[in-house]
Amino acid sequence: MSPQNLSVQNSSPSKGSSVSNQDLGLPRLFSISEVQFLVGGKSRSTIYRWVANGSFPEPVRTGGNSIAWPEEAILDWRESVIRNRAH
Questions:
Q1: What is the mean pLDDT of residues 34-54?
Q2: Domains and CATH numbers, the chain
Q3: Which of 23, 44, 65, 75 is the most exposed place for a label (fewest CB within 10 A)?
C-alpha cells in the first residue's frame, strides 16, 4: 500500500465514505511497511537498528502492540539525509 492511500473511516452514518487524516487535521502515521518503502526498501531490522542507535526517528505507540511513525518525522529524516549527502 502506498502512503497516499492512507485514510480513516468516517464515523458518520453514510456508508463507504472515508476521510483522510489531513481532512481531520491529524498528522499521517506510517506503518513499518510504509516506512520501509519510504526509505528505499530497507529491512525492518535495519530500521529498528537505526532507531536503537539514534539515527532514525522513534515510532509512536498507537495502541496495544501497534506503532507508527509520524509523517513529519520521516520527511524531516529524509531531508536531513539528503542535506548531509550534499556536503
A1: 97
A2: 3-86 (1.10.1660)
A3: 65
